[in-house]
Design goal:
The structure holds 2 protein chains of 2 kinds. Chain A is α/β, with parallel strands linked by helices. Helix content of chain A is 35%, strand content 27%. Chain A has a 6-stranded mixed β-sheet with strand order 6-7-8-3-9-10, with helices on both faces. Chain A has a 4-stranded antiparallel β-sheet with strand order 2-1-4-5, covered by helices on one side. In chain A, strand 9 and strand 10 form a beta hairpin. By secondary structure, chain B is an all-alpha fold. Chain B has 2 domains: 165 residues, no CATH class; 179 residues, no CATH class. In chain B, 77% of the residues lie in helices and 0% in strands. Chain B starts with a helix and ends with a helix. Classes of the chains: A alpha/beta, B mainly alpha. The interface between A and B is medium-sized, with 29 and 27 residues.
Chain lengths: 244, 365
Amino acid sequence: MVAPPDNDVLWARSLNCSLGGTPALSGVSIGIREGEILAVTGPRGSGKTTLLRCLSGQLTPDQGEVWFNSSPVHTMAPLQRERLRREKFGWIAPEPALVPELTAWENAALPLLLRGSSQQAAKTTAMEWLERLDIGMCARKRPHALLQAQRQRISLARALVSTPCVLYADEPTATLHRAEGAQFLRTLTTAARSHRITVLLATSDPEIATLADRAVALLDGRRVNSTGGGANGAEGVTACSLSV
Amino acid sequence: MLALRLARGTHPLVLLRRLLVAFASAGVGFLLLCALGYAAGHPDDSATATLRLLWCLVPLAAMVHLAVAVARTDPSTRPRPGLSAIGLGPGRLTAIAAASTAVSCTLGSALALLVYLHLRGDITGMPFDGAAAELLAADRPMPLPAALTLLAVPPVTASLAAALALRLRRPVPSADDPPEDGAPGGLPWGVALLAAGLAVEIYAGRSQGEAGVFAGWALTALGLAVAGPGLTHLSGRLLQSVRPGPIRLIAGRALMTESRRIGRPLGVVCAVGSGAFAAATLSVTIGPPAVLGAVLVVACTIGTLATAALEARHARTSTTTALLALGAPPATLRTAAALRAGALLLVLTPVTWAVAALAAMPLHS
């Protein structure tokens, strides 16, 4: 086993993964630097979600290695991987996937509550994030009473509330209209830059990929090429750091 | 035919549930035939024969309750987007659900007829030939049209009830559907029925009116059954109150959301428990058909509760997936489920016991 480069927070080598016999990833290698926003692009069915699930420890690859901060994710026990997801990672799905019986602030506070913080502290932090994302007025409503864009923002608040090391966003704007989607991504990127959160953004839209520092393209489960994103790498990071 | 074809590919657990319905239907059919046998054997005692037939309504109701719960949870007749797109929408699926219910109940009725004829001694060659010849009036010819009419009762009622209960299902249930919020309205009615039942019992007990005492007791049992959803909601509300941690929060809210689904069968189980308590305090000696009826009622109500719990678990699949994606340990979810069961036991056991004890008191006199 080769130890990963020091400046990569997340690193994967020659991942092979099949879902129910169908090959989803074949020989994908990827390295993500700390604080960078990396877009994973490709059409539907190209293996973006599978790659994100492998990197976040939700799936174990058939072959290959995944390292997070010099610890091997691919050899971890399921309980350790859960703990890693709970403590270090955030996840935004295409659908908001909120818990329907909890109110907006309870949904947003859930990661903190699961980590064992007190109810009052979790509520304060969750309410702060909801206010920052302009959905403070929906805090006491249930998800079914809200609009899709508001629900997706609650899902963003839930992912950011614990200030994770790595935030996985799997096509977060797929179910939103263009204006709402653009605002969502702006909020996501500024929040990530100001809190130095590493973001993996899976998207099938090349326009969205230009918001990222770097883009990696997948096609039929293989990497095809990688291109620089719209922002100029590390130089742009501090300049974009707004307070969100 | 489609109902049978769908049944062939289903999970063994689903088939087991249908088999349970078939056995329950067989039991009810046998009880109905027993009542018929008594009526044939005692032509001059028609009042008792009618009373026996009426007592069969209790196991019949329990069996229909079970059949509807099983039809509701049947995955092969659940409205699905794929099937809805090819024109097999909720309407057709309801018909299929009713047909499969009718198939299992008819199977049960046929079994009941076989066992009945065997115990009468009409079919020979197996152990217990004619073991209950006296009870089933073997010396008289069996009125076949009457027997067939009675045996048709369980399949017809069960499939009609299934069709009526399932006709309003939504074509594609989605996560965005508003859950049934707010407390279910049964609690005040349940309490009112309980109070009215106890009052009727006490007044009838003073004037030695046996029918009045029994009617009052039945009202209290009905009150328990009606109050079930409200009590379930109340226990969920208590569980999540006062600064809850994640486990209490998830468990309590889930109980509040599922109070309608779980609460009704739970209320019926409480009512049956109250009946068992009354029977135990009276220490009545009952014959074999009554034992069969009691076993049927208890098995059907517990089976209905288990099926409803399974249905609730299926309805929460998306929530569970979302929680697991967040990194919630499965142990947390299991603890939450155990906490739900514990809270229900803690609230419902004393309530049922108190009501049963109060309601059984006037029965002594």
